[in-house]
Amino acid sequence: MDVINRINHTRFLGREFLTWIWYRSDIGEGRFDVADGPIELWFDAKLTLEAQGDVKEQNVVKADNPTETDEARAALASGKLVSEARLRVVKGQKQWSFSVKGDSLGLSGVKIPALLSRDDDDQLYERFYLLEELEEDFNALFKEFIDLRLDDEGWSDEVNQIRRWVHGAD
């Protein structure tokens, strides 16, 4: 299987991942544990949910807390997955916000925490460090998801819990 086919056959994982983050963020009050400490992750400002398959129905929700809207919940209950989102990560006194697309998991429009350095060179290194810190935390969440996704029994249990959550049983 060539690279393009492999990408196309696994593209759904990013959407599942973003939907799983929504579930975990909701049940865990936004808290996640990553290697170097706890973070909070919230959906912020914009959320896009899209149907899978040939018909590309899409719901775009723009709100301060888009995951708490009836429209987003109804789209999720109809089987749509998160295809794009604006996320906010809080770690201690630092806060990042960024957009992410489910198909590529590419981060864009990243806003980093305020810089502490005064020197231009130091500010550049600090920016790189803050971007790297965000990337490491996001990758840690993705690794947790993939580890769970590859565990047939664990993923089956998680899917059942997500279904109950979607339909209001949790």
Task: Give the domain tally.
Answer: 1
**What is the molecular shape?**
globular
Mean pLDDT over the residues: 92
Structural class: alpha+beta
Oligomer: single chain
Query: What pattern of helices and strands is seen along the backbone?
Result: HHEEEHEEEHH
Total number of helical segments?
5
- E-strand count: 6
Uncertain residue ranges: none
Report the major sheet.
6 strands, antiparallel
Strand content: 25-35%
How helix-rich are the residues, as a percent range?
40-55%
Describe this structure in words.
- The protein has helices at residues 3-10, 12-27, 70-77, 120-150, 152-166; strands at residues 31-34, 37-50, 58-63, 81-91, 94-101, 107-111.
- The chain has one domain.
- Strands 1, 2, 3, 4, 5 and 6 form a 6-stranded antiparallel beta sheet that branches.
- Helices cover 46% and strands 28% of the residues.
- Strand 1 (31-34) and strand 2 (37-50) form a beta hairpin.
- With 170 residues, it is α+β, with helices and mostly antiparallel strands.
Chain-wise SSE layout:
Layout: H1 3-10, H2 12-27, E1 31-34, E2 37-50, E3 58-63, H3 70-77, E4 81-91, E5 94-101, E6 107-111, H4 120-150, H5 152-166
Antiparallel strand pairs: 1-2, 2-3, 2-4, 4-5, 5-6
Brief account:
The chain has 170 residues and is α+β, with helices and mostly antiparallel strands.
Keywords:
single chain, 170 residues, alpha+beta, six-stranded antiparallel β-sheet, 5 helices, 6 strands
